[in-house]
Amino acid sequence: MHEVRIPNLGAQIDDAEITEWLASEGARVEAGEVISILETEKSSYDLEASHSGILHIITGVSDDRISVGELIGIIAESDEEYEKARSR
């Protein structure tokens, strides 16, 4: 299982806004595929999947600013792997 977090987008950027999820909850994603669009005060950023698997979204699209490093999703190899991790 792999965590999807708001990445460090550069110096002096502490947070971002999720403006769109391009992959839907439960969709199979491939490593390198753009799964979300993030907006900072300076620009927009394509967030790519770091691993292949099934996307489980934790934080949806919102007008709220989300801090760098905050967990926004999980990519699991299977639904069973996700459910097992979630029950811990």
CATH architecture: Beta Barrel
Query: Structural class, from helix and strand content?
Result: mainly beta
On the 0 to 100 scale, the average pLDDT is 90
Task: Walk across the major sheet and give the strand order.
Answer: 1-8-6-3
- Under CATH at level 1, the class stands as Mainly Beta
Number of domains: 1
Given the structure, what is the number of helices?
Answer: 1
Rg calc? 13 Å
Low-confidence stretches: none
| Ends apart, CA distance between termini | 13 Å
Explain what you see.
- This protein is mostly beta strands and 88 residues long.
- The protein has one domain (2-86): RNA polymerase II/Efflux pump adaptor protein, barrel-sandwich hybrid domain (OB fold (Dihydrolipoamide Acetyltransferase, E2P)).
- Helices cover 9% and strands 42% of the residues.
- A hairpin with a 4-residue loop joins strand 4 (34-39) and strand 5.
- It is globular and about 40 Å long.
- The mean pLDDT is 90.
